[in-house]
Amino acid sequence: MAMTPGSALRADFPYFSADPGAVYLDSGATAQRPARVIDASAEFARKDYAAVHRGSSMATGEATWAFEEAREAVARFVGAGEREIVWTSNATDALNVIALGMADSSAGLGDDRFALRAGDEIVVTEAEHHANLIPWQRLAAKTGAILRWAPVDQRGLWTLDGLRQVVSARTRVIAFAHVSNVTGFVAPVADIVEIARSVGAVTVLDACQSVPHMSVKFGELGVDFAAFSSHKALGPTGIGALYGRAELLDMLPPARTGGSMITTVTMEKAEFLPAPQRFEAGTQPVTEAIGFGAAISYLDELGMGAVAAHETEMAHALVDVVERTPGVSLVGPAAGEHRAALVSFMVQGVHAHDVGQFLDDKGITVRTGHHCAQPLHRALGTPSTTRASASVYTTLDDVAALESALGDVRAFFGVDR
């Protein structure tokens, strides 16, 4: 693909073809899809739609081949083996699969490697998305483990030293986001993996906001498990992925049981297939997997180096806009600090929902609310923020439109006098 991220790509996306002037700054929630991704799913549904891994017909074989080819594409993209990628309904589901498997291990239904006992510790950060917090809260409640967390400061940022202070010899799990969906903070993964290994803890990475925006190779990062989603990576909703080191996935009990994930079933017991099939009970989101694979191939052709360079430019531009607009305060890393291409901010005297409605009236789509991170917002002293987030199709014109509109918000609501 000769094109580079930015305005040249917008023709690939039907959303912008329908409304060329659209300013879509909510890719951190759901990214737009290229036509080729939509077409890939539709073409499969029209021509190759059949059950996968069931039966011996040619139709089943063709569908299974396409399904597994998509898995291979995703696995290569994130530096994993094809046995190390499990399809899930979304990233939230993937994180729950890990926590539920550990709960079953703790109840004696799986390998003791994942069993937690009373007094063991699970470590997260105060900045986590609820999807990477609530499953660990419930695991702690089920097992008697203690949930501990690295606190955030007034900017919503946690530190490596803060994390070290809550890790101990009893820590069994360290779960954290690669990129915060509120602050854009990029976690020092290698350092955290080293800390976890020093105490024998399992690492769980929420990679939803990193996989679509930078080069992410889980094998090189050294994490034990990771979760990411399709709809944030230019793909369809209804599917996500769980990464796990193959030997660990084979030891983790499946969170869901039923058809297609077994080897032998008697009236007394069942034995399960190796990963990834052991986690894929029942009918899978096959059409969505085809679309996910097509989306990953699109990003791969762009080149994640080019994608990351483009989004670094967008990150700087977004931060500059927020920091130079009177009455607007930035959450997270300041100008010049490393961050992802999403910015959350507060407008003095105006509720975030009103800010979002004003921007929406100007044709600018952003996200408002607590972004599924209430503890972080509670630490910031606000119930909600406004967030603008970029992707491969975001342009400097989009950022300029945000700046123009944001500068008018306080005057519109009569709070700049």
From TrEMBL:
| Superkingdom as given in the UniProt entry | Bacteria
Q: Does the keyword Lyase apply?
A: yes
Q: Which reaction does it catalyse?
A: (sulfur carrier)-H + L-cysteine = (sulfur carrier)-SH + L-alanine
Q: Which Pfam families match?
A: Aminotran_5 (PF00266)
Q: Aminotransferase class V domain: from which residue to which, for each copy? A: 23-402
Please name the top-level EC class of this enzyme: transferase
Q: Which residues cross the membrane?
A: none
Essential cofactor(s):
pyridoxal 5'-phosphate
The EC number(s) attached to this protein equal: 2.8.1.7
GO MF terms held by the record = cysteine desulfurase activity; selenocysteine lyase activity
**Gene3D superfamilies in the record:** Aspartate Aminotransferase, domain 1, Type I PLP-dependent aspartate aminotransferase-like (Major domain)
PROSITE patterns, per database record: AA_TRANSFER_CLASS_5
Keywords, A to Z, come to: Lyase, Pyridoxal phosphate, Transferase
Q: What does this protein do?
A: Catalyzes the removal of elemental sulfur and selenium atoms from L-cysteine, L-cystine, L-selenocysteine, and L-selenocystine to produce L-alanine.
Q: Which family does it belong to?
A: Belongs to the class-V pyridoxal-phosphate-dependent aminotransferase family. Csd subfamily.
Question: Under what name is this protein listed?
Answer: Cysteine desulfurase
